[in-house]
Amino acid sequence: QSSTSRCPSFAVLRQQQFGRMIQKKTNLSTGATASVNNDRVRVDLPTSNTYQSISSAILNGGCQVFETSSSTCSTHVINYKVPSTYDGLNPSPQSLLANFAKKEQVDPNNTVGMLTAASMETFSHSSRSAMGVSIDVIVTAGLSNSRSSGAAADFFMISEDYTPDDDVDGDDGQKQEMKPGTINTIIIVNAPLTQGAQVEAYAIAIEAKCNACVDHNVACAKDSTKFAMGTGTDCAVLISERPIRGQQVIKYAGKHTLFAEMIGQAVYEATSKAIMTNILHLHYNYATYTIHHWSRTFVASMMGAMPLIPPKPMMPIPRAPLNVVFMGISKVLTIYFFVPLPDKAKLLFAAVAWDRYLREPPLTCHPVCIAGSMISACLSRTPDRVYNNPFMGFTFGLVLLIFMFSTVTLGAWIFIECIDVISMKGPTFAREYMSGYYNSLIEHALNLLAWILKLLLLKSTFSLQLLCILPLQMAKFIERGQIDDARGQLCWLCSRDPSTLGPSDLAGATLESLSENLSDGFVAPLFWYVLFGPIGALGYRVINTLDSRVGYRGKYEWFGKPSARLDDVINYIPARITTVLLALSASVTLGRRSAWRGLQIAWKDQHQCESPNAGWPMACFAGLLGVQLKKEGAYCLGATSGKEPTPVDIRAGHRVAELAGGITLVIAIVAVIS
Asked: What is the percentage of the chain residues whose pLDDT exceeds 70?
């Protein structure tokens, strides 16, 4: 074996250096003693005082008072390092800390205990003193579990203890590996504080920690476009002397006070040093860390405006972050200027990019919304006797279908022709009044404007992004027990009465709508765009919209029959294509066995649905996710092997549908080019 192969790599050397034996003891300005080794940080406070603490610690957390009855009985703070494999259950954190305190030969009842998986190498100390008041701050920092304020939850319970059966899932529907990483902060004050000052000083300390995270560009592990304010398991303890009658007490700790300045600066300094130690361990230098941070932000921007989920049902969708908007505009312009594709393929590619990153066109000029308003106006002016008479209903329904289809498609054709005329004749008109440079500029501007208007017309016929956003919102509502909100939101997805639906029924209805809408709202418009261009896609949307308004039994039984039957015809091929695409996507995200099961269930159960098309993607979804999708008295897809659907299945279905949409785009572009 050569000597080269026996030499450890630089990364290995760094790892060995970071894991070296630690053993040091520090006398603090407050009179306390801090000792650190590979297993823990321990702070021993002077035995002559009685102490009060406020903390989020596991052992003796909250507001506590520690009496020292003798010179041998002291108050302690322990920050214990657990292995990265510790599951937080066996043994319980409280028992683990109490037993370790006994091992350290200290009284657990007089000890504030915290847990961390961060290396003790990140131990950092800072102090401030003024006018006889001293403050010591000790911090250890791990960053792999970083979170921003309001980041999506990992555990969906309020008061219950965690059990291994609790689902821990990310926005992509996969099980989340809870990586170790905690910023633990110990603040010691050698002066008594009132309860109000104690609370305010604790808040100042937390704010200082957040400032340190932001200044070092610590990104949220759930969303790299947001700064982390710490980690998901941070603990902090503020411990001070307990006020005694007649003793001078610190009454205020607002940001205008010197005391707040001292605490804020000490916590910021100690946290910054601990974070920097962790960064240098992981990335070797700050330059590579900065590049890593920028790359994560870029990747997050590339993911698009997901998930832009309104906090309440029916509220407007929030705006995308500026970096996502900038990414969307850049992509659309890059496709226009640099992508060597035929105009028809380039327009489709750009429309999907717009859908991914940018907002929908305004509803007031949205072609599909205009068509819906026209349908509503026609229905409001149609007398009831038309609906009650089969012959009149069918005849008037056919007339409405022909009128809507011809009006909208003719309007779209005129719109496109006008755009082309302006882009061609505009430069000729400009030559009479402007020089050559400005004339060329106007020509390029008009061509770009005409292209964007055509893009928006095509974009209005589909919405894969919105299709994927709404199921994620439903999953969040169901996970958090907000059943009324989930019922209110279901109307965005389907026309089913949600008033009596429980969590599993809501999850099932969401999955059914996701699979069916993937076919109706994305695959089919692209299919007809490939065949007949933007007018074909818009004509399909008009027929589909009319079917969704009147194509069901009841009042519009005969009136809606022409629209329903034509919708069945134009969706016949796209529905079956969607089924194959879902199976292909599932083979990548869920495995080939799930994909094959989806095709089997689709072939077996699709006939249960009244629609000749909807049953195919819905039954395939039921099979590949291993769930039952049912509607009482109508159908039960996947009944033989499926379970009740949950939010976990919604997230898994979202991943499958999103990938299927991407595959659809690739196939459509290839079909247009060929």
From this structure: 87
List of residues 6+ apart from 364 with CB closer than 8 A: none
Q: Choose between 424 and 19: higher pLDDT.
A: 424
Report the candidate in 635, 658, 643, 499 with the shortest Cα–Cα distance to residue 582: 658
Q: Where are the alpha helices (DSSP H) in 303-366?
A: 322-338, 343-357
> What pLDDT is stored for residue 299 in this prediction?
64
How does strand 76-81 pair with strand 111-116? parallel
Q: Which two tokens stand for residue 269?
A: 């300094």
* Contact yes or no for 610/553 (Cβ under 8 A): no
At residue 18, does pLDDT exceed 70?
no
Q: What pLDDT is attached to residue 442?
A: 79
Q: What secondary structure does DSSP assign to 85-101, as a single string?
A: T--SSSS-HHHHHHHHH
Instruction: Name the residue type at position 164.
Output: P
- Any residues with CB less than 8 A from the CB of 225 and at least 6 apart, and which? 219, 297, 300, 301, 321, 323, 324
What's the average model confidence in pLDDT over 316-321? 70
Evaluate if residue 79 carries a pLDDT over 60.
Answer: yes
Distance CA 514, CA 618 (A): 9
Dmax of the chain from CA atoms? 101
The Cβ-side half-sphere exposure at 20, using a 13 Å CA radius, reads: 8
d(CA 495, CA 504): 17
State the pTM of this model. Answer: 0.76
Which DSSP category does 521 fall into?
I
Residue 409: count other Cβ atoms within 10 Å of its Cβ.
Answer: 17
With tokens 């949220």, the residue in question is 220
How many CB atoms within 10 Å of residue 194?
A: 14
Residue type, 437: Y
Own/partner pairs, 585-588, CB within 8 angstroms, 24+ separation: 585/656, 585/657, 585/659, 585/660, 585/663, 586/624, 586/656, 588/659
Q: pLDDT at residue 642 above 80? A: no
Residue type, 366: H
- In this predicted structure, the answer to whether residue 638 has a pLDDT above a threshold of 50 is yes
Q: For residue 627, give the nearest of 593, 659, 597 by alpha carbon.
A: 597
Residue 124: left if φ>0, alpha if ψ -120 to 50, beta else—which one?
Answer: beta
